[in-house]
Amino acid sequence: MSTPDPNGSVWRTSSYTGSSGNCVEVAPATAGGTVLVRDTKDREGPVLAVPTAAWRAFLADIPR
User: Fold this and answer.
1) In whole angstroms, what is the distance from residue 34 CA to residue 15 CA?
2) Residues contacting 40, CB < 8 A, separation 6+
3) pTM beyond cutoff 0.70
4) DSSP letters along the chain, please?
């Protein structure tokens, strides 16, 4: 699922979230070069900006 943001970012929620909302959402930064991460339960709360290369390295380390 994706959610448009008034700031222009399109947030994506994991399909594993279910109805509990215990997950994070991610979006590419509109300025590029970073991935934005926020808490699904607190969409108005803080946003973490992670460099794209670091985000890719993080994803590569997750067991599948």
Assistant:
1) 22
2) 13, 17, 21, 22, 23, 24, 25
3) yes
4) -EEE-TTS-EEEE-TT-TTS--SEEEEE-TTSSEEEEEETT-TTS--EEEEHHHHHHHHHTS--
* Interval 6-62: pLDDT, tens: 567 788 887 766 666 678 899 987 777 899 999 888 888 899 999 999 999 998 998
Position 39: which residue type? D
The type of residue at 44 is: E
Beta-carbon-side half-sphere exposure of residue 53 (alpha carbons within 13 Å): 0
